[in-house]
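#lab-general

N.A. 3:47 PM
ok so I finally got the sequence cleaned up, no stray characters, all 106 residues accounted for. can someone with queue access submit it? mine expired

B.Y. 3:52 PM
send it over

N.A. 3:53 PM
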Amino acid sequence: MMELVNELLTTLVKLVVTAGGSYLIAYGLPWLKKIGLYKMVQIGVMAAEKLAESGVIKKVDKNAKAKEILGMLGIKVTPVVEAMIEAAVKELDTQENKVKNELKKD
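B.Y. 4:20 PM
back already:
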């Protein structure tokens, strides 16, 4: 009896894992593609910025780390992607300055 229960549980777990993987492939990957390349670049830049702020990497290594993160995400770093990295850095700096200015008003 116990063997039957174990076999049923094993089969059930395999079914759940297979269904979960299929769901991820069917819905997760297209969703990631919808995020778009620039959004992925922004994520890489913000991650590198956070690593530099926390002292894990040197501030001068942020650009290289952002490129490394994008490579881990499967994004080939081309001149267009490099331009996107610079744009994302500029956007991040602009947002940071806006927040600082708002805080000074109070």
